[in-house]
Design a protein that fits this description.
Elements lengths: L1 H8 L2 H9 L4 E6 L4 E5 L1 H7 L9 H4 L9 H10 L3 E11 L6 E14 L5 E10 L1 H12 L6 H13 L4 E2 L4 E8 L10 E7 L5 E7 L4 H22 L2 H14 L7 E7 L5 E7 L5 E3 L5 E3 L17 E4 L5 E5 L11 H18 L9 H17 L5 E8 L7 E5 L3 H17 L3 H22 L3 E8 L4 E8 L14 H9 L2 E7 L2 E9 L1 E2 L2 E3 L19 E5 L2 E8 L4 H11 L7 E11 L1 H16 L4 E4 L5 H9 L9
Parallel strand pairs: 7-23, 25-26, 26-27
Antiparallel strand pairs: 1-2, 1-5, 3-4, 4-5, 6-22, 7-16, 8-9, 9-10, 10-11, 11-14, 12-13, 12-15, 15-16, 17-18, 18-19, 19-21, 20-21, 24-25
Length: 636
């Protein structure tokens, strides 16, 4: 028998060498624990483990737990049906001491049967397609023509849903929203997180029956009514009663469902109502889960009333609200899909810190069920997830530094750390950073030898307050060219600016509501995940290429002079036309704006155009729009 096998397959040495040199990753697994019995060379090199043989795959790659891959292996072994995946996102440690990194795989898992026909093991093969996915991401990020219908749907979706989620001192909030079919239909799901006047926060997920523009329009009306009543009264019962009255007048709103939960971060007390909606899921830090009891309320317009129930959320626990699209997926019975949600969401919360994820536990609880469950089955309905985690408050900034240029960098680093700890989104963080940078620049100029003090705080309403104080006397200076833009820019960038000048010093205070974006997804984006981004450089970069001066890094009072020298050199003192590319600028202070104003005027005096390019949505474009400095948002 052995000789016959050799004659058909080849001698042992040749077969082993051929298997080990295969251009795809191949692994053999045996038994219910999926013990590794064979591993090709490419597979071993890819995972960074030289000795996987004889070990359960859970021990070889412990980070796979919670990423729905071990569960897939279990399913193939139990059912005997092969499964495959395309561009699956996986966080993987390439070696025992390596940090997790994001990779994408095309793979297939086939059952291997014994002589009796029963499944004895599995054969898995995979191809690393990370480069392909990243190339497509880059192409998608570039400006391109899109179908008008797609743009209309996306625009409607973004206008009807919250512009941002509140950033709160002791509650981290996250949300994910996936349309049923982003190509031609808007959705009827909605969500909200509303800070109330007494420090509590109201969490809402609703679902209007149907799809398309009519469902979206009805959703927008219901959301507006509920938001107004919650904000005005803070009473979930009264808000639902008002919503029910509105639904009775709107035929498309009949049978709409909604879950409202009001959380008090001070003690974790929770009041909630499930009006025809699936019950919230509570997830402990160790990944254990429990569904909260239904309250007995029916859908809007049913006339059943809105009884409330009470529960408690402990520090570290995540409360997850969701629409039924996540548990009513093709090929899954609702009961099985409900269990899958607890498994994936629980693992996401339990494993977030161990995996070194760039996402918070609340973000993972929203992102991973959509990514892992939908990519396995597809989806036919909108899917919304809203999560809130009770957390300890982040430590505020309290610094006192000498009035010298180096203080700008120290304050920016301290403020960036604080904004990251509280979870501010990039747009809100950029506005605060720019505003405070201007105030610190003023303080350094006016303080003389006195110290500059910076203090931060975050209120229960999601409004950040940052105070910059110095011990110097204010000195009004006449405007010089573009000089004097600092306070104007600050006032434009934040919600409120107060300046108090006394004989003993100047105190400037900014107040700005911090938000972070929800993840608004299309089906094409589900498997893409969230890319890791390297931290921005703190050095200014200037490079000339094909008639462009590419500027990267922060442009502030510390680096503005360097920019001025570089622009004079690359424009030959204003006699050469160039494009100043600001797409890589991470911070643009008034000192940098002043340099750009002067450079534009210098070239204009010689009748030589100087073009400034700042792509739409970039840090530079936001600032240039505020100060009304002419610039282009397209590369052409």
């Amino acid at each position: 028998m052995a000789d016959d096998l050799v004659s058909r397959v080849g001698d042992t040495d040749t077969v082993v060498r051929t298997f080990d040199e295969m251009p795809v990753m191949v692994i053999g697994l045996d038994g219910p624990d999926h013990v590794v019995t064979a591993a090709s060379g490419l597979y071993r090199r890819f995972i960074g483990v030289d000795d996987p043989i004889g070990r359960p795959v859970r021990d070889v790659l412990p980070e796979l737990r919670g990423q729905h891959l071990v569960e897939l292996l279990d399913r193939v072994r139990e059912t005997g049906i092969a499964e495959a995946g395309g561009e699956w996102r996986v966080l993987l440690r390439r070696g025992r001491d390596a940090a997790p990194e994001e990779v994408f795989l095309d793979f297939a898992v086939e059952p291997r049967r014994g002589r009796d026909g029963a499944v004895a093991g599995l054969i898995a093969s995979a191809v690393d397609v990370t480069a392909r996915v990243r190339e497509r991401r880059a192409a998608m990020a570039a400006p391109a023509e899109r179908e008008p219908a797609h743009d209309l749907v996306r625009s409607l979706q973004r206008h009807l849903l919250p512009a941002g989620l509140p950033v709160l001192p002791t509650v981290q909030v996250a949300a994910s929203y996936l349309l049923a079919d982003a190509a031609d239909a808007a959705g009827g799901d909605w969500f909200d997180a509303v800070p109330l006047f007494d420090g509590r926060v109201a969490l809402v997920v609703g679902d209007v029956v149907g799809h398309g523009m009519a469902a979206s329009a009805t959703m927008g009306q219901l959301r507006a009514v509920l938001l107004d009543r919650l904000d005005g009264t803070g009473d979930a019962g009264l808000a639902l009663a008002a919503l029910d009255r509105t639904a009775r007048r709107l035929s498309d709103a009949r049978a709409a469902t909604v879950c409202v939960a009001v959380l008090d971060p001070a003690d974790g007390s929770l009041v909630y109502c499930t009006a025809g909606h699936p019950p919230p899921l509570l997830i402990a830090p160790d990944g254990s889960t429990r569904y909260l009891p239904m309250t007995g309320a029916g859908p809007l317009g049913a006339g059943a009333g809105f009884p409330m129930r009470r529960d408690r959320v402990e520090v570290g626990e995540v409360l997850l609200l969701y629409s039924d699209g996540i548990v009513e997926r093709p090929g899954r019975a609702p009961a099985a899909a409900t269990v899958e949600l607890t498994q994936v969401a629980g693992a996401a919360v339990a494993d977030w810190e161990r995996l070194g994820s760039v996402l918070s536990a609340a973000e993972r609880a929203c992102a991973h069920p959509v990514e892992l469950l939908v990519r396995a089955t597809g989806h036919t309905d909108d899917i919304t997830l809203l999560a809130a985690q009770r957390v300890a408050p982040a430590e505020d900034v309290r610094v006192e530094l000498p009035a010298e240029p180096a203080t700008l960098r120290a304050v920016r680093q301290a403020l960036a750390g604080w904004l990251a700890r509280v979870g501010a989104g990039s747009a809100a963080a950029s506005a605060v950073q720019h505003a405070v940078g201007e105030l610190v620049t003023n303080a350094v100029e006016h303080s003389g030898t006195g110290p500059v003090r910076v203090r931060t705080g975050l209120g229960g309403d999601g409004v950040a307050e940052i105070e910059v104080a110095d011990a110097g006397r204010w000195r009004d200076r006449p405007p010089e060219g573009a000089r004097g833009l600092g306070l104007t820019m600050t006032a434009e960038l934040v919600d409120e600016l107060r300046v108090e000048r006394t004989e003993t010093g100047t105190t400037a205070t900014v107040r700005h509501r911090l938000t972070r974006p929800a993840r608004l997804l299309t089906a094409d984006e589900v498997a893409s995940g969230v890319p890791r981004r390297p931290p921005p450089s703190d050095r200014l970069g200037l490079a000339r290429h094909d008639g462009r001066v590419v500027v990267t890094g922060p442009v502030d009072a510390r680096t503005a002079a360097e920019l001025d020298v570089g622009l004079r050199r690359h424009t030959s003192g204003g006699t050469r036309s160039v494009t100043v590319d600001l797409s890589g600028v991470t911070h643009l202070a008034s000192a940098g704006v002043s340099v750009l104003h002067v450079a534009v005027a210098r070239n204009a005096a010689n009748d030589v155009p100087l073009r400034i390019y700042a792509p739409a949505g970039s840090v530079a474009q936001h600032v240039l729009a505020v100060v009304a400095l002419d610039h282009s948002t397209s590369e052409g």
